[in-house]
Each structure stands twice: as structure tokens, then as C-alpha cells.
Amino acid sequence: MAQKSEVGNWFIYFGNQKINKKFNWHNEVQYRNFNFAGDLQQLLLRTGIGYNLTENNNNLLLGYAFINSQRYLPNAVDKVGNNEHRIYQQFITRQNFGRVFLQHRYRIEERFLEYDFQLRFRCLLGVNVPLNNKTMTNKTFYASTYNELFINAASPVFDRNRLYGALGYVINKNFRVEAGLMSQTLENSIRHQFQLVLFNNSPFNHKK
To answer: How many domains does the chain contain in total?
Structure first.
């Protein structure tokens, strides 16, 4: 069966606000399109509360996601939509080796579809490398890449794989932006997405 290649675009916002030294609030919006903009493929809203096992490097998180997906009917211009509610648990660990900053993320998802329940596992390895500075400080350009594998608890075991590459810029200690291309391999098809991403990581202000 021949694989089909298409190109879409994802607009993404990632927020991570520290509540205190131990807890953080994750908030996320992804607006995914079949084309550059205006032809909705999926709207994803995700949130969660995280707990730092060690400061900045190891984080456990429990969260919830709502996903509205749109798909075209075969040989038609009409789309049908469906909603998914998702509970997820994840562990993130970070290390750096000189100029190379690594992130490992392991996630379990309980997916409540309209007429089904599915369990899925995800494993991501991400790398950021600053280009004009030695660390990810203000006004730093950086290269970013990740690979994420999705595995189902039931058949088919392979769900998808995402390979991503981007150029990013650290605006200041709270904000950074990325523009990149992601190739998503599914069981019988490949899709490519441009991604425009805004990261908001607010600092913890401790009041003595």
C-alpha cells in the first residue's frame, strides 16, 4: 500500500508556570491544520500539575487533555468531528553535556474516545544546542530536534513516530520561539507539518 505524503501546519503554545519550588502548572494549546491555517485538523487543549523530584531536572506530572479532531470523508469535501478526553501521567528528566541539552519524556495516556477506550505509551528524546552562546540564555539562537515513538497497548502496537527539527530563539528568561518541520510516520501514511511554537516558562519568585 503506497504511503501518502501531505503538508499541514501546527500553531502551538506551551506554558509552564512554577507554583512554588516543588509544584508547577503546565498549560498547552495546539491548533493543527490540514493546510497553513483555516482548515482545522485538530484542536488540542492540555493541562496538568507537576511535582519536581529534584529542582529543574526531574518532574512528575498528572494531567488532562481535550482533543477535537476533524477528518475528511472519503472522496468528499465534508468533514466529520469527534471529541476525545484524555488522562495522562508523565516523567521528564533533563541533562546537559557541555552545549548539548537533553530531555527525556515518558508519558502514559488513557484515551476516552466517543465509542472506545485506548491505552498508549509515548517516549520522547529531545536535544537543544545553543548556537551563538554556550547556554540557553537571553538572545540565543539554538537548534532543536526530537524523536517521539507512540506505542499502543493493543493491536496495532505501532501507533506513530514523530521526527522534528527546528531553529529557535530565546527572547528572554520567560519566552522562546521555534519554527520547524515535523515528519509523522503512521502505519500506512506519512504527514509533514510545519510548526510555529511559543514557549512561556515563568520563573518562581520566592517571597521571604
So the answer is: 1
